[in-house]
Amino acid sequence: MPKAFVVPASGPISAEEVMAHGEGQVAPYKRIRRVEFVEAVPKAASGKILRRELRDREAACS
Question: Which CATH number do you get for residue 45?
């Protein structure tokens, strides 16, 4: 199930707004169904997103 990890840049934003933003840009089966707001996205020294850490975080919550 697609999930977005969102770091709000400025001002409050709701999960519904995040999901609505992506609706017209992706296929229906790729639409975001869950949103989690985080302080920062984990990144490696090279600047790449550490998806493994996000998957591990999600597995720990389930």
Answer: 3.30.300.30
Distance CA 31, CA 21 (A): 10
- Classify 15 as helix, strand or coil: helix
Query: DSSP labels for 23-44?
Result: HTTS-GGGS--EEEE-S---B-
Say what percent of the chain tops pLDDT 70: 98
Q: Total structural domains in the chain?
A: 1
Taken as a whole, the chain contains a residue count of: 62
**29 vs 37: CA distance, rounded Å:** 22
pTM of the predicted model as reported, rounded to 2 decimal places? 0.80
